Amino acid sequence: MTRLLPYPLMALALLIMWLLLNGTSAGQLLLGAVIAILATWAMRSLGPSKPRIRRWRVIPVLFARVFVDVIGSNIDAARIILARGGRTQPDLVHVPLTLRDRTGLAVLACILTSMPGTAWVEYNAASGELLMHVLDVEAEQNWRDLVKERYERPLMEIFGETSE
Amino acid sequence: MMNAAGLPLWAALLTSFFLLLGATVTLIGCIGLIRFKTFYERIHAPTMGTSWGMGAIVLASIIFFTVLGSRPVLHEVLIGIFVTVTTPVPLMLLSRAALYRDRTDDSRKLPGSGDKG
């Protein structure tokens, strides 16, 4: 099984992408599957780290949470730009992260970048400390808690670091 | 050939709503780019365009072509996924470059380098 499908998730994602682009039919399903499997074989020589997803159920919860938060963050940023003429108290905030999984960190970077209120600036892999820029700091501790409680914890559950 | 006039009213309203929403959000982001004064503040403005600006326009496109073609057209979702996944890369590159510049210039109060350890 692992010989035929070294990266089952990636193969599945490629197949879905193929079907979305070309339309769903039996022929496309077959062709897409063949291409997806061949592409994952090619990826094997690159040897990317394989994410181990432990808890699938947390993913939709996190997704919905991010979806709602992005809307809120957009409204906040729009208000700052239009009503306050861009006058804010921007600041850099240090967030000590416990999350070490690379895929998890990548997802966290995507989440923080998608929010207009926050931007990922720098991550120190040795100390696990994230430096992020916040558009409007009211209380630094609140932002730290927001990142740790709302996003880091579900990510750690998904990528299964709590058990280690 | 698909005819836009054949679109039912509710779909037309939904499509226009999301299209205008996306365009407005992106426009506000661009205004922010001008109004903000420092580089770090400016990083935030364009992400409005890549989050809900892009999202709403993609949604409008999905509704429009799904109703017209009377079958689900979902490949726009791929645009959303790829924009979301690729935005952090140039953004981190730019902000790290700015951070490096400011640390070397010593022009403003900045936290110490994360790479020193």
UniProtKB/TrEMBL annotation, chain A:
Intracellular or extracellular location(s): Cell membrane
Presence of keyword Transmembrane helix: yes
InterPro entries: Cation_antiport_E (IPR002758)
Top-level taxon: Bacteria
Organism expressing this protein natively: Phyllobacterium phragmitis
A Gene Ontology term for the protein's cellular component: plasma membrane
Any one Gene Ontology molecular-function term assigned to this protein's record: monoatomic cation transmembrane transporter activity
Membrane topology classification: Multi-pass membrane protein
Alphabetized UniProt keyword annotations: Cell membrane, Membrane, Transmembrane, Transmembrane helix
Keyword Cell membrane: yes
Stated family: Belongs to the CPA3 antiporters (TC 2.A.63) subunit E family.
The protein, known as: Na+/H+ antiporter subunit E
TrEMBL record, chain B:
Record carries keyword Secreted: no
Record-linked InterPro entries: PhaG_MnhG_YufB
TM region(s), chain numbering: 12-34, 46-65, 77-99
Membrane listed as a keyword: yes
Matching PANTHER family: ANTIPORTER SUBUNIT MNHG2-RELATED
Superkingdom of source: Bacteria
Protein name stated in the entry: Cation:proton antiporter
An example Gene Ontology molecular-function term: sodium:proton antiporter activity
Phylogenetic classification of the source organism: Bacteria, Pseudomonadati, Pseudomonadota, Alphaproteobacteria, Hyphomicrobiales
Alphabetized UniProt keyword annotations: Membrane, Transmembrane, Transmembrane helix
Pfam families in alphabetical order: PhaG_MnhG_YufB
